[in-house]
Write a structure and sequence with these properties.
The protein is mainly α. The protein has 28 helices and 9 strands. A hairpin with a 4-residue loop joins strand 6 and strand 7. Helix 3 packs antiparallel against helix 4, helix 9 packs antiparallel against helix 10 and helix 23 runs antiparallel to helix 24.
Amino acid sequence: LDQPVYVTRVNKGVLCCLDRQGKNVEMEIDASEYLFKLALHRREYDRVLAMIRSDRLCGQSIISYLQQKGFPEVALHFVRDDRTRFSLAIECGNIEVALQAAHELDERDLWHKLGIEALRQGNHHIVEFAYQRTKNFERLSFLYLITGNLEKLQKMLKIAEMRSDVTGRFHNALYLGDVQERVRVLEESGQLPLAYATAKTHGIEEDATRIAEKLTESIGEDVNLKAMLLADGGLEAKLMLPPKPLVRCDDNWPLLTVSKGFFEGNLAAAEAMSGGKGAFDMPDADMADAAAGAWGGDDLDLGGDMDGIGGDDDGMDGIGGGDDDEDGGWEMEDLDLPPDVGGGAMGGGEGALGVGADGFFAAPSPGVAPCQRWSQKCGLAGEQAAAGAFDSAMRLLTRQLGIVDFSPLQEHMVNLACASHASLPGMPQCPGFVTAMERGWTAETPSPVAHEKPILIFSLPALEDSLKAAYKCMTEGKFPDAQKTFTTILTRIPLIVVDSRREVDEVKELVTICREYLVGLACEMKRKDTPKEDLKAQLELAAFFANCQMQPIHGSLAIRNAMVLFFKAKQFNMAAAFCRRLLELNPSPKVAQQARQVLQACERTPGDALEIDFDPRNPFDIDVINFKPIYRGGKYSECPYTGARFSPDCEGQVCPIGGMTKIGVDASGLVCSPTQIR
């Protein structure tokens, strides 16, 4: 555009806008491309098909877009360039189109790629043709070996001899089990000891004697060769010959009959209606012959002259309408066939069971995968993760808890997805059968429709056991282990599922417990890393640790530690306050006696040597980023998951309690039970 315009409305192919002078301007635009993409995004395949048939779309951008969105068969319809058609055909597995494009281009690399794709589909006829065009004789020999085609393998031996390919001759002789040819190859290439050993081992005495005479003339003083000749097969060596193939594989590997996709079927139908034939379509006469062989047995001698179909004496009176009733339509007369005429699939027997006379069995179409059913039916993050729908689970957790860093949850989510399936061993050298496992199965409700929920490995009782292990680490003073265990509990809670409101309250209480302990542990470990010369910071962090809401035994240990530190620092007023708190917890007699003695000493000499940022009479929360108290009434930013509070300048940072959530974002809250979303 020469000048910028301001869009006001778009209606089909008309763009309404304002120019720089404020005048209404209508411009005609070609909306085919974006309407095509919009219809494809909305899965309006009828509109997409109509636009394809109109041939108004073309260009590399459309082809790339269709290829990226997973519709290479649609992109194949737009392409006229043989190289691009070949790439798209290989991507969507259309061997026929790829073969046609390879014929046109006739390049070695393309034939090689076609052979790989055809081999993947089990179409060894095209694989053979591709190997022949690329003169890949080694792979061609191995293909004849695995298909049991010994005649062509014998021809490959002759071709290798004509090409003076010693290695190829020897390999083909090995594949065929032709010992005499192997002896001849080794002898001609100058490997007389190997030729003698091969002939002697397989009992070809005439060749062995002749080669031994040559060896006797040439070995001279070679002791090893003399010993080999004198041994005369004493080692009783025996070489294995390749087994003869029981069944020769002439047909391609059988594939399941699958229905064509929406675009593939409609586009193929359109080509058929237009009269066009593909590169591999059969002529009409061949199709008639093929149909005759596939649908019937012997020809029916219905009598009459077949030249004048539709006449009175053509022997086909029941077809095309009869003389007795002109309005009857196609009233077919019953044919009383003799019992010796071969029947087709409608003749009963195996045909009634779905297996044709040729033994073909049509496998039933697969149903909805359990993972897909779980992701559609379940609305909790843990169940979505167990279904393998990690993106849906992460969206739920971001909306509910404000989680932005999923690295702590990665291992748990992968474990949930793996644990919801079991692998059952099958036949030897075959992959196991993977089956989905759902929870809630009982004898009263055996129907799978009543469940449709994956089995989970994280539960509230398991988290309670982990909490007990964390308590034990706290009691023993193993603070790093305790911190790791509390963090693990906090990262597993978003992925558990409970059944009742009471259990939901217990889960939320568990979050609060983990938060208090992790805040206290962060303060204590920060204190241990602080230099002892910084006495003010040491005292503040010890007081913060003692202020956390923990179990009585852990709270008494933290208060006792703070009491000792404050008494040694001559903070007698604060030490006396900690003594009183410790006595309120009813500690052991020895600890209580020590607290009373410290209290008496503090009361005799009241006063504090330092002024610290700690007021035990004013409730506060601890900012574990800046390690400062946030007193009641002060401004703060909150973690949407744990409820930990921080200074306003910390908003937008990742919360150190758990390391998952963003501080200060709005979130709906933890959802871990179906009762919360009903």
